[in-house]
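User: My instructor asked us to take a sequence, write out its structure as tokens, and then describe one feature of it. I'm not sure where to start. Here is the sequence I was given:
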Amino acid sequence: MAPRPPRSRRLLRTLLAALVTASVAVPVSGAARPAAVPAPAPTALGPLRDATTPAALARRYATTRADIRAAERTADAHGDHRRAAALHTLAAPTRHFLTFDGRDGGRATEVHGDLAHADRIAVLVPGSDTGLDTYPRFRAGAEALLRQLRRQPGIHPAVLAWLGYPTPATVSPAALTTTRADHAAPQLREFTGQLRALRPTARISLLCHSYGSVVCGRAAAGLPAGTALVLYGSPGTGADTAAGLHTRATVWAARGTDDWIARVPHVRLPLPGTTAGFGTDPVSARFGARVFPAGTGGHSAYLRPGTLSLTNLALITAGRPPVATQDTTSGEAPRA
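Assistant: Let's start with the prediction itself. The structure tokens for your sequence are:
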């Protein structure tokens, strides 16, 4: 008789089977899946590295705003008024997008802060259930991080909310495999390289939440030198160790004590055409990342104002050491 597989592998197989069954058997609510909402092709944009002045960035923002409005009109004509309303909000004159494509569920990169003069840039890479229809919560995290960064003296920060791939649903087989991350990684790698060309002296940090850390892990080998790779609420990266990412980036990791992701089995199971599970826990000593405190928050609380996790994400982005405790009198961490 063949030996039984380890308990963690049995759990992963059981979970995968349950998710596959649920994705087939449970009907999807709503009028249409997000990817089914049509949108026109966006305007062709030049390389990001060419937008080196405030005027050039303003022209790019105006172009993407026009594309968002065109997508809004298309969604409205299609009868998806929820998507149209979401796009109407995105097209406000005060919003600034480096990229936008409303097709296939939507892609966008929004700028928070003054990118033309930034010397500290955080790129937020989201996890599951993030899209144009749920975008406000993603934006709220970016805005909270920017406010926290502005409390750091002597820096000029910007935060880029990078929705550059179709994120999986939390309860879905796609959330257990590397397939979407494999497809997204080249886009993230290319975007980070262009951002480095645009702001060659800036400190760039990729802040990778949940499934977004799988995307970052797949992109890590091609990231430019001087980049920080920050994994939080991570199920794993697809690599056994930080060294196995083969990256020049400095790798950080954190997890809140109330984050359910800690209960996900840290194994990898080969499947036809993909892999289920993401390997070693990034906050474990075996992985070898620089682990920093994230407080007591849950899986969706890392960018919540007043949390230790937000404080430390801002400190790492600013190039300063994280802290172990929060200043309870002010709601801030001690200045580094």
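For the description part of your assignment, you could build on this observation: The beta strands are 97-101, 107-113, 120-125, 157-163, 203-209, 227-232, 250-254, 269-271, 274-276, 290-291. Try explaining in your own words what that tells you about the chain.
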